[in-house]
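Deliverable D4.2, example record:
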Amino acid sequence: MPALDVYLNEALVGELQQGKGELAFRYARAYLDLPAPLPLSRHLPLGSEAFADAETRAFFANLLPEGGMREQVARALGLSPGNVFGLLEALGGDCAGAVTVVSPGELPRRQRAYQRLTQLELEARLTELPAHPLLAGEQGVRLSLAGAQNKLPIYFDGSAFHLPQGGAPSSHILKTAILHLEETVLNEAFCMNLAARVGLNVPEATAIRCGDTRVYMVDRYDRQVAESGDLLRLHQEDFCQALGIPPELKYEKEGGAGFAACFDLVREWSSEPLADAAALLRWALFNFLIGNADAHGKNLAFLYAAGNVRLAPFYDLLSTAVYERRVDNKFAMKMGGQKDPRYLSGHHLEKFATEIRVGLRVVKAQLRELAEKVQSEVSPLAEEYRRNHDSPVVIGWLERVVAQRIAKAKAVIT
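Output generated by the structure prediction step:
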């Protein structure tokens, strides 16, 4: 039976098997005998029995790209998009978190191998992404990231960019613009920086120039620099993995998680449930204020570090409402039963508070406070972006959406 070894950093965790089109995962006995082994996932608890296809697939499929991007990667590798095993065999050298998937007996590379890229080489790699996502099939490159957008995991040493070779860890992610939508790079960078200014926990993000192309660059929160200077991976799992939801069902309307399930998960699994539930509430309200309708379970994750499980820094914050005629702006997760932000009312906010088991007074106070912070920070940040990025039109659109949502928030909490 075909098999792959699964590692967390340099510890062999278990074996991923494929037989008759189905996947199975089993923890290694030696791993279970370690003093304090981490589970790969809440949905794959430590134990000696093999996990069946549904449980196994829900975790491992969520390590891979999604949708059209997965189809492109599979085409480049000569594989079926549904072949999770084959795709991980080709791409599993540098996944989200600390997971590495390798051929049996092949150890994760201790040698840190990186190919330094000149500016022209980096531009070429980014230009190739739409036709060659994640550089799939390129000799020595084994990179995998979930999501549907073109992105390139990269190592940045503060002055130069490097392409990780084999299983070497990346330090940053570069994302190119979404086709047919104006200035998504600046949109996401702006929303991430606005989030930081109003107190949300987000990794550092910026928009950079690579030749004539503007690119979104974000620190990987699942990486840590050791005292030795080596880059270490930190284990993480997104909420779809933690709940056993396959990536194709990430939206609530398709069977994915809603707010109630996410808050219950945080209360059950986080080492600091009160603090993380409060952070999750601010995330939900901030997404409403910026007009991000694509906030789903795969945009939330747990980070395993120093023996604790905590809500990971937030990512993929982008205003979809600025593209109102080209993007479905119904909530990815209904708020109090309401799927359309235009019709959100005080009744829906009350129902939302009940669903997530947070007092209505607390929800209103958090929305009021966050709206005031956003209102005070959005204009100074917008002026900064106009100065630094040649007055892009999307910044004006963002200001307008935020102003509309703040007005809506004030009406809802009165």
